[in-house]
Amino acid sequence: MTYLIKNIKPFIGQHCETTATGTLLNQIGIQLSEPMLFGLGEGLGFIFWNMKTMDFPFFGGRIKPDALTQNIARNLNLKLEVEETTSSKKAWENVDNKIVKDIPVGLKLDCYHLDYFTDKNHFAGHYVAMYGYDENSAYLVDTKQQGSEVKTSLKNLELARKEKGPMSSKNLSYTIQSMNKNYDLKKSIVVAIKNNAKDYLNPPIKNIGYKGVLKSSEEIKHWFRNSKNIESDFKTTAMLMEKGGTGGALFRNLYRDFLKESYDLLKIEKLNDAYEMFVEIAILWTQVSDLFEKTAETKSIDYINQASAILVDLSKKEKRAMDLLLEI
User: Fold this and answer.
1) CA of 47: how far to CAs of 200, 208, 231, 258, 292, in Å?
2) On the chain, which terminus has fewer CB atoms closer than 10 Å, C or N?
3) How confident is residue 37, by pLDDT bands cut at 50, 70 and 90?
4) pLDDT over threshold 90, residue 155
5) Alpha-carbon distance 322 to 320, whole Å?
6) 68 CB-near residues (< 8 Å, 6+ apart)
7) Alpha-carbon torsion 133, 136, 142, 148, what sign?
8) Checking DSSP bridges between strand 173-178 and strand 78-83, what pairing results, if any?
9) Angle of helix 269-298 versus helix 301-325 axis, rounded to 10
10) How much is the pLDDT for 132?
């Protein structure tokens, strides 16, 4: 049996969660840009994470998984319904019950198992929107770089959804529905910016926010000295920072563009000032990833020392920008 939601409007995006959630929003008549969704989701963050079970440390540039969609739904007065289960059978029923009612479903899964992924790395914090299936395959919307409208075998979808590991969930699926409550986009933008700035400036641990950026400036030196595979570690990290669904510059390009779009709507000068600061911040993050690339090529600590100095500067600049945004 084949069941496809008619007139699906795929969201064309670079980041997986905004792409999946944007597709769900398209179906209920809410069409916003990817930077706007990222900003309304209070998405900007930073984390430097290193555990013994990891092959190499993780550089993250956004808030924790799931929170972005939760924030978008709250800021737009929408109903977010999330379902989780340890049962593969129940997990399929949760999705099928929505698809047959022409409601697309967001899924969180491990992209390692998806047929169309050529880069086979385990990452259990990936999101897609599902809009149909046939006897063999699930029909999905993924990021632009992954092909946008794609499909994977039902068996591999099941494996991807129930995979365990960092950032994984128990067969998580979600839908978004209108509650017939209007939202004021201008007010929602201000609330989202202030919430994001407050969280960024008050990290619960030193690995997160501007304190995490500063800490990473020293940690990358230890990482370089202790790495068993400098070439692979730093090349992969550079790729993830620029091309791993971040929109470039570890999500700073998306936030920069969100601030520009917000200023165009609200005409608050502090927004324009913060936008100009993020123009420079985004360039510096790309320089860090370029230096990681050079580290991978040369295995020279000189480039790590240069990246370290930029990270110290970035910590100060991002704190200053977020302090300014807290005042709008």
Assistant:
1) 10, 5, 22, 21, 17
2) N
3) very high
4) yes
5) 6
6) 17, 18, 21, 38, 41, 42, 43, 62
7) negative
8) antiparallel
9) 170
10) 98
Alpha helices for the chain (secondary structure H): 16-27, 34-40, 67-75, 88-99, 154-162, 185-201, 209-226, 230-243, 252-266, 269-298, 301-325
Phi, psi of 304 (to 5 degrees): -65, -40
pLDDT digits (tens, 9 = 90+) for 61-107: 999 989 999 999 999 999 999 999 999 999 999 999 999 999 999 99
Please tell me the number of Cα atoms within 13 Å of 56 on its side-chain side.
22
Phi-psi region of 26 (alpha: psi -120 to 50; beta: other; left: phi over 0): alpha
Kind of pairing, strands 105-109 and 78-83?
A: unpaired
The residues, ordered by sequence, that sit 6+ positions from 317 with a Cβ below 8 Å of its Cβ are 277, 280, 281, 284
Asked if 284 contacts 278 with a C-beta cutoff of 8 angstroms, the reply is: no
Q: Are 83 and 94 in contact (CB under 8 A)?
A: yes
**Predicted TM-score (pTM) of this structure:** 0.96
C-alpha angle with apex 244: 241 to 245, nearest 5 degrees? 110
Asked if residues 327 and 270 have their Cβ atoms less than 8 Å apart, the reply is: yes
Q: Among candidates 159, 154, 90, which has minimal Cα distance to 122?
A: 159
C-alpha triplet 181, 64, 230: angle, nearest 5°: 150
Q: Is the dihedral of CA 263, 264, 267, 272 positive or negative?
A: positive
Q: Measure Cα distances from 165 to 60, 120, 181, 245, 290 in Å.
A: 16, 15, 38, 20, 29
Cα gap 260→272, rounded to integer Å? 7
Matching residue, tokens 């969609």: 69
For residue 10, give the DSSP letter. Answer: -
- The C-alpha atoms of residue 185 and residue 37 are separated, in whole angstroms, by 11
Cβ–Cβ under 8 Å, residues 146 and 96? no
- Rounded Cα–Cα distance for residues 77 and 180 (Å): 8
